[in-house]
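We modelled the chain as a single entity of 677 amino acids. Its sequence is:
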Amino acid sequence: MKHRSTPLIAALATLSITQPALAQTENLDTFVVSATREARDPFEVPASVDKINQNTLEKAASFQVNLSETLTRVPGLVINNRNNFAQDLQISIRGFGARATSGVRGVRLFSDGIPATMPDGSGQISHFSLSSTESIEVLRGPFSSLYGNSSGGVILLTTENPRVGTELEVNQIFGTDSTRRSGIKLNKGNEEVGIVIDASTFRTDGYRDHSKARRDNFNSKMVWNLSSDTRLSWVVNYVDIPLAQDPAGLTAAQLASNRRQAGTNTVGNNTNKTVEQSQTGIVLEHKFSPGTNITFSPYYGDRKIRQVLASTAVIDLKNEYSGADLRFGHQTSLLGKPLFLNAGLTVGELEQARLGFFGASTTPNRDEANTASQFDQYLQAEYFFTDKLSVLGGVRNSSIEIESNDQFLSNGDGSGSKKYDEVTSNVGFTYRLQPNINTYISYGEGFETPTLLETAYLSVAPPSPNFNSQLEAAKSEQLEIGVKAKFGGTLVNAALYTVDTDNEIVVLAANGGATSFQNAGSTSREGAELALQHAFNRQWQANAAVNYIRATYDTSVNSIQAGNSLPSIPKKTFFGELVYKPSSLYEAATELRYVDKLFANDANDAFAPSYSVVNLRASKDWPLNGGWNVRTYARVDNVFDKEYVGSVIVNQGAGQFFEPASERQFLLGVTVGLKWK
């Protein structure tokens, strides 16, 4: 693939000299590990990376159930709430993942080192336990490919570590549409061992008809300091969704007549989804010396899904997944200058038993044993030529194999398999113009394989399962340039980027709940991101995240016309926040979010209009004697009662593209905590 010259590239050099910038929306002392696999200040990293800390997760979130509550403040990340707990959030980073009709595609997800993205690139986030999360990192751009297949971006969630002493918290939150959440969290530890246990239950009647849901989460993390050089962490995670009604999407006519109604045939056929998932993993860290360490992180999990579609088709999935990552890190010197090395191996396997039924029948009309496996090797190095100039580079060899073994042969043998092998590399240079200004340029290659879901149908006319071996992996090249700067109480980050992709994977046709996919030739994305944080004084602070992206098809394929925009990628987004914090005990803020129109299909003849919403929030801590603390908080989302579409279902076959967002929503909550030795 040859990277094209564009007007955007011509402007890059000007930006690097004239625009001050910074890559995060949190405090100056925030550290990241995602781009370098070392604890580093993002100011030093030649990549766009943001870290949302625990304070923001506690005070800016609402129910601490969805990532969309806080991650909208990250530039380049679009996270749309479908108002449908039968489907995951619609997450895209610089356009990667925007095509997903359910689950998460194109974005790599991790929770405490355990992949929430399977080897085939499909991801789920319903098991993320946000109430015990210490931080969430979001990595964008060329270095995302260091995490392997389907890494258009990376989201890494980390559970808080146990603290010395004993802390107990209970919380209760109430909101509009009979939405409520109850939770309890225990933190207990000493210098040698500690544990965090977090359990919660969430229920809602839903904004729309036929959208009731219940979700129960459990998360625990136990940490042993086995010696001064060795630490072992053990994570156990469980989620149960016994009820999640699926209201589906609406046509334009349905949306105009009654935005709260459920989609066609959903109520009569009781469309719904149930999920049960459990997983566990360990992280063993050992230092051989101050500059040499090894990390080993094996994991195992299982996920059961049963989903009833509007066509009365029933999907029954049982997934078992396991894997491990082994990483070796070493700090040395070359020609008298620091050199940091990381090398590792990643293995993963998904075994999926898939059954299909029709209506109330207990006789399967589909029976498959599917597998997806990966075996990756990676090497990464960072070298400091001088105090001002450094280089970070990496290479990853990935081997992904997906296979479908059809065990229901009365309609033909739909078995098939395909292997995808790819070597990707990336490199970035950081140059310090001044002590408070860093500029960088980075380049990277990436690839995205089709998932088991995307290879399930060669054609949907009629919908008969037949492994689509014609799908190729999408391959991309990314180029980014930006500047990071610190000016007293002001932090700024500006970046420009281009992405060229060959064999983009897109929807070919949809019928009766089945979807087939195709490769769509080449696409291009050109974008700009700006993150700004400014402290006016000790009481007032402003945060902003601005994103612009132009994402288009470059070639015509079937019904896709060159020049059309890729669907579900807003050209412009904005998040702004004004925070008032007169003391460490009180915080109030006004938020503004703007999202440009979303095209709903490749033809660009259906779209959801742009919208802007204003939110208000406030929280107050009430310290009491004896180690007690009470935190009260309130939130109003969509203050001006705006009617808008929150997300679209890309290329939905019956034209039911639109998923309306909630109107004005209220929330009241209280957390009672007690600390003792």
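As a brief sanity check on the tokenised model: The domain at 7-676 is CATH 2.40.170.20 (Maltoporin; Chain A). Residues 449 and 473 are 4 Å apart (CA to CA).
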